[in-house]
């Protein structure tokens, strides 16, 4: 046994695989940067079929979706995972079910994001994500629990943000006209008082970067990966 070996990170991915690929790259880049040389991340990946998950989401069958992810999480634990990530914001709706199914800690994406926001001294943030993430309380309340005031786009803007995620980003389509739509939505959030904007869907980072916003953006995939590597390397 190698002394002080990094903890194995378990990834619940495929939701969608476009962002899961970004997770894998970031984890390995971050470990390499922190440890140097040929080091890479110790991780195991369970890649689900997003079409199945999307159908359960659309039908409101969240209990079934939770059991699907919990079964995959148990497989990751058996494969040696010592820390668990759900590689999507939306499916944190079933984070409680997933955590209850395993004996390893789940690193909640909203907690990692909130820590980054409060670390910048901000109190009011705009939230972009799927309609589930923007409209339901499982994610917004988690952020609010860290003392944050959370603003969401108008109903019309929420439809636009959601459509672009599912119809384009989840299938790898990154379009300049959609980037413009997102920038317009961000502008309206800033006008409403947002001091920063959470990119609360892991695919949004394929479309929006810091230079596309007049206020700081918080890329949840990167923040989640950074927190996971810190936890993995801590002894």
Automatic annotation (TrEMBL):
Gene3D superfamilies on file? 3.40.50.1860
Which controlled-vocabulary keywords does the entry list? Answer: Isomerase
Pfam families hit by this protein: Asp_Glu_race
* Highest taxon of the lineage: Bacteria
- InterPro entries for this protein: Asp/Glu/hydantoin_racemase, Asp/Glu_race, Asp_race
- Indicate the family of this protein: Belongs to the aspartate/glutamate racemases family.
Quote the NCBIfam families the UniProt record gives.
Answer: asp_race
Q: What is this protein called?
A: Aspartate/glutamate racemase family protein
Per the UniProt record, the source organism is: Amycolatopsis minnesotensis
């Amino acid at each position: 046994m190698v002394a002080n070996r990094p903890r194995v990170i378990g990834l619940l991915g495929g939701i969608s695989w476009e962002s899961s690929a970004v997770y894998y790259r970031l984890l390995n880049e971050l470990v390499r940067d922190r440890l140097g040389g040929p080091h890479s991340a110790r991780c195991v990946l369970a890649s689900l079929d997003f079409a199945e998950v999307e159908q359960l989401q659309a039908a409101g069958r969240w209990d079934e979706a939770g059991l699907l992810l919990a079964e995959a999480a148990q497989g990751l634990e058996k494969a040696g995972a010592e820390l668990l990530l759900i590689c999507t914001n939306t499916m944190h709706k079933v984070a409680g079910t997933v955590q209850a199914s395993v004996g390893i800690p789940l690193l909640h994406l909203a907690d990692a994001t909130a820590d980054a926001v409060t670390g910048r001294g901000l109190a009011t943030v705009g939230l972009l994500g799927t309609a589930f993430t923007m409209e339901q309380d499982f994610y917004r309340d988690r952020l609010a629990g860290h003392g944050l005031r959370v603003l969401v786009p108008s109903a019309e803007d929420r439809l636009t943000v959601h459509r672009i995620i599912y119809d384009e980003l989840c299938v790898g389509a990154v379009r300049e006209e959609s980037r413009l739509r997102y920038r317009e939505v961000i502008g309206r959030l800033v006008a409403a008082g947002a001091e920063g904007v959470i990119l609360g869907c892991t695919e949004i980072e394929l479309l929006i970067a810091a230079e596309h916003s007049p206020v700081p953006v918080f890329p949840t995939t990167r923040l989640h990966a950074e927190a996971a590597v810190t936890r993995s390397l801590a002894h």
